[in-house]
Amino acid sequence: MDTDTTVMAGGSSARERRVTVVTGAGTGIGRATARTFAGEGAHVLAVGRRPESLRETADGHDRIRPLPADVTCEEGRTRIAHAVRERGGRLDVLVNNAGIVRSGRLGTYTEDDLTTQLATNLTAPVLLTQALLAPLRAARGVVVNIGTALGQRGWPGSSAYAASKAGLDALTRSWAVELAAEGVRVVGVAPGAIETPIGEHQGLSRERREEVRRWQLAATPAGRLGRPDEVARVVAQLAAPAQGFVTGAVVPVDGGAMVR
Questions:
Q1: The one catalytic residue among 22, 80, 161, 234
Q2: Which ranges in 120-252 belong to alpha helices (H)?
């Protein structure tokens, strides 16, 4: 069946394709998520700060539109909202995936370490979701917040990151209740150790990245790192119309780390 004539996210029907916004879409989980939605027939606005990475995400995927924007600033969020309006004001799915890590133990953090992580991982999802709330309500859409397994257990050395993502899980549950009567679903995905370039983005040395990988493998019962596409498929399934009774849930994709 042609995607143009199927039931859309949240239960509404329309002939135009679903529209999805994915933040942090330049690499890793965000890139895989953008490509997964595009492969299902959606138009995807792939948001990120690095234009070249976004172009690589869109390469070979004509339904992905790269949209360079910084979600931590008002100008960037306004640009995203404007891009949605340019597509007719339709928004079926918002994936709040952008995130950064500044590892460190208590006693080593600077104020910048804390404010930068909170601005990207917690404040930006709040303000971007607010900016896009009207089209999400109109489409009876879905918000998917990408957290982390770190936010659901103790992980020394990443406490500030874990706390910011735990806050995102709290937003997921609260928004699910707030928006349920309007037909908007809010769900979360909590990835564990996934093969992404996040260590390189932190500026970690090769030796430190290998040390972190050994630690991740030891904490993951599955005995391997996950792949970005494994997370992306869960995101897409949670956002699907068939999952219309699922809201407020935070689903781990972590190789068993949460139940170890």
A1: 161
A2: 124-131, 133-139, 159-179, 198-202, 206-218, 228-239
